[in-house]
Amino acid sequence: MIRVALPYHLQTLAMVGKEVSLEVAGQVTQRSVLNALEAAYPMLRGTIRDHSTQLRRPFLRFFALEQDLSFDSPDDPLPTEVARGFEPLLVVGAIVGG
Question: What is the pTM of this model?
Answer without folding.
Answer: 0.92
